Amino acid sequence: MTDHVADLEPMPTDWRRCLAVVAHPDDLEYGAAGAIAAWTAAGHEVHYLLVTRGEAGIDGMPPEQAERVREQEQRSSAAVVGVDEVEFLGYRDGVIEESLDLRRDLARAIRRHQPELLVTLNHHDTWGPGAWNTPDHQAVGRAVLAAAGDAGNRWVFPELVEEGFAPWNGVRWVAVAGSPFPSHAVDVGHTLDKAIASLAEHRAYIEGLGDHDPVEYASDLLRRFAAGTADRFGGRPAVSFELYSR
After folding, report:
1. Zinc: is it a keyword of this entry (predicted)?
2. FRET partner for 54 with CA separation of 20 to 30 A, picked from 72, 78, 87, 171?
3. Chain centroid offset of residue 221 CA
4. Biggest alpha carbon–alpha carbon distance for the chain
5. Secondary structure of the chain: what % helix, strand, coil (to 5)?
6. CATH code, domain with 82
């Protein structure tokens, strides 16, 4: 007898603003962008905050060149799914720590944007059995979870109040993309093409992975991901999230 795998619930839609916080350019495009395209099409506000510029992500390109290329690729990618505002904190790629400085910077951004929904990438040790996650993803994801609370507590980083950023207790959910423990999903049947185009904008990064055509690579990967999630979401192609309620 096999264990029953629970169906995924629809993601909540009764919110206005979302702040998506990840470590690197392209982190949101490996799945979450399909959901983001659906949200922006429905009138929700979504902003991106990247902790690094991804300068260590292309082996054959020096970091000082890669950071310029990857920042532009991320801005172009975001525009495809209706996101106009992309910010970069400028932490060093590959060596992010779950530090108080990072938590403070994220709490500041949360207070400034005042989102009801936070989105981040998998903070768990693995993507699933046999697939180890990277330290940057783990550190940023965990810092986002901490900062969701920090943003509402005036006594954790009192200097933020002095800077003019009042506490924000309005974060209602944190949604973790790419989690091995998904609980919710978003139908991407009408936005999968946009998600593919969004990932394909990371041309230099994808070509650095090997002999790949960016569009074919993005299409094969995202269609496979969406089809895999459909088995737990009524047969509909979907993007999954692990959802934390606050």
Report:
1. yes
2. 171
3. 17
4. 60
5. 40, 20, 40
6. 3.40.50.10320
